[in-house]
Amino acid sequence: MRMLFALILGLLSFIGYSQKLDNSLVWKISGNGLKEPSYLFGTIHITCDASLDPRVLSALKATKQLYLEINMDDPGLQAKMMDGIMMKNGQKMSKMVSTDDFKLVSDFLNTNLGMPATLLDSFKPGLIAMMIAPKMMECPVESIEMELMKATKEQNEQIFGLETVEKQMAIFDAIPYEEQMKELVDMAKEGLDKQKEENKKLDAIYKSQNLKAIADYMDNEDSKMYGNHADVLLTERNQSWIPKIEEAAKATPTLFAVGAAHLGGENGVILLLRKKGYKVEAVK
To answer: Strand pairing partners for 40?
Structure first.
């Protein structure tokens, strides 16, 4: 079960690669009228070591603003997230599964979050899975995005988002709640030990900087929930980001930092920018 790992790497898709991409998480964007280059960086949203690669630090120094998937520096971020955490139309997790499975999930949540499922009954199951993510780590959790924000503020530069919090939260309305709940039940049945092992594999693949290996890892998953909803989870989002990336890069040299899974593939940000006429090359 890798629903959670798809979220950690940026809501993966399993679209094939017609162009082989170099192994890199940092890419330089130039050409097509840009006066100065911008940079693209693939992140992993939680990690044991959020130290920034020297190439990322160089990209930060060479640019004048930071774009994340959402503006994590927004003071109203938490309130906006809470507004989108509930399922629509009064739906409840307890109505989606058997009594035994709901109890299993409730015990699992009580152990790992300190609260039973009855208190979270109206929450979107996929978001509950994200709340459990830190428990998968055998270390204090760190955030690459937070390190990027810290460095950006030290340079007295601004932070922006490629999409709104509301749009990102709405992703969990586009995937049927029943499918999300099934994944949460599976997680409760498997336990965190298996999740921790999977996380170690994912971390190793991320560190390899092989964008195709990231997609292949997810493509081996038994559950195809994310593949079945790739249009909403990845393709449409990437396509909606391109005009914003173009506008920002033309105005100001920018570092764009998004989940690593958004970079590769036919509908990934790298090839979409190349199709628009930009030179996008790996920073070695």
So the answer is: 27, 256
Tens digits of residue pLDDT in 200-252: 888 999 999 999 888 777 666 554 556 677 677 788 999 999 999 999 999 99
Overall domain count for the chain? 1
Distance in angstroms (rounded) separating the CA atoms of residues 262 and 279: 17
Is this prediction's pTM over 0.85?
yes
**CA-to-CA distance for 216 and 15, rounded, in angstroms?**
10
Q: Show the CA angle centred on residue 114, arms to residues 98 and 140, nearest 5°.
A: 120
Residues 6 or more apart whose CB falls under 8 angstroms from that of 222 comprise: 1
Count CA atoms within 13 Å of residue 116 on its CB side: 6
Q: Which domain holds residue 28?
A: 3-282
Take residue 213 and report the two structure tokens written for it: 């290996």
Residue 137 is classified by DSSP as -
At 256-276, the pLDDT tens digits run 999 998 999 888 999 999 999
